[in-house]
Design brief:
Rossmann fold; 6-stranded mixed β-sheet; 8 helices; 25% strand; globular; disordered N terminus; binds adenosine-5'-diphosphate; binds magnesium ion
């Protein structure tokens, strides 16, 4: 069982700023994510379907934001766009101070791999690798030496309560444990931004709360900016801010 002590479910950004984290944040831009009039269309032949219809957002560094709204509103599309997995059709996206619309796909890949972590509804762990190997993979891909990558991944897995499970394959652990390992993999590279898409959607209530608390704790410890798309009202309530997306737009009501 994960050690969930020290979790403050409604802490504000300011009271998370102690010592080192404050120092680290001094070097970060005030806003990790600025989106200006983002549009995103999909095309089926000549037919255009506009999914994002002029999204404007400013997300502060270290802020934890819940993205809510009905199915089909465009939450996943927005996360993919903010995470540089898809390019917007138009608009400006400034991530960690980079004006990404001016950067080529190669630079996008580098920014994404270095600064952004993803956690999805389904864990997407590689079935033939152990939890430790899975969690260390992003570091291995980034060129970190095997032993160092394993050590860092091991620490993170231990911090999400998987110390005794590291040598297991994903198929040998529970759904909640798989998702915790996916969180460790997402956070192992210390991403400045963590994007989560329905991270508890496949879990029962108790396991869902556990993952939520762990996301909050790990992200706060690393001072990552977090956006979580969710249908879960408890997750939304315990975020710093809720942003509602309706029909491809930020709903201000
Ligand atoms: N790759 C795609 N091609 C075409 N249409 C898409 C694609 N991805 C999403 N859509 C459409 O965009 C709309 C918004 O989807 P999505 O962003 O997944 O919404 P949400 O996550 O809020 O449920 C839906 O109508 C969906 O069918
Ligand atoms: Mg979705």
């Amino acid at each position: 069982m994960a050690n969930l002590d020290n979790i403050r479910s409604s802490a504000t950004i300011e009271n998370r700023l102690g010592g080192k984290i404050a120092e680290y944040k001094m070097n970060m831009p005030e806003h990790s994510i600025i989106a200006k009039d983002i549009h995103k269309s999909y095309f089926e032949g000549p037919k255009e379907m506009e999914v994002l219809k002029g999204i404007n957002l400013e997300i502060k560094t270290g802020e934890i934001v819940a993205l809510v709204g009905p199915s089909g509103a465009g939450k996943s599309t927005l996360l993919h766009t903010l995470g540089l997995m898809e390019r917007p059709t138009s608009g400006e996206l400034i991530l960690l101070g980079w004006e990404t619309q001016n950067e080529n796909n190669n630079k996008h890949d580098i920014l994404r791999n270095k600064y952004i972590g993803f956690l999805f509804q389904f864990h997407y762990l590689l079935q033939e690798l152990t939890l430790l190997e899975n969690a260390s993979l992003p570091l291995r891909i980034a060129g970190v030496k095997s032993q160092d990558a394993m050590d860092l991944a091991g620490e993170l897995l231990a911090s999400v309560g998987l110390k005794e499970r590291m040598a297991h394959l994903p198929s040998q652990v529970s759904g909640g444990e798989q998702q915790r390992a996916a969180l460790a993999r997402a956070m192992v590279g210390n991403p400045a931004i963590l994007l989560c898409d329905e991270p508890t959607g496949n879990l029962d209530l108790e396991r869902g709360e556990e993952i939520r608390d762990l996301i909050w704790r790990v992200a706060r410890a690393k001072c990552s900016t977090v956006i979580v798309a969710t249908h879960n009202p408890d997750i939304a309530k315990s975020a710093d801010r809720i942003i509602r997306i309706v029909n491809g737009k930020v709903c201000t009501i």
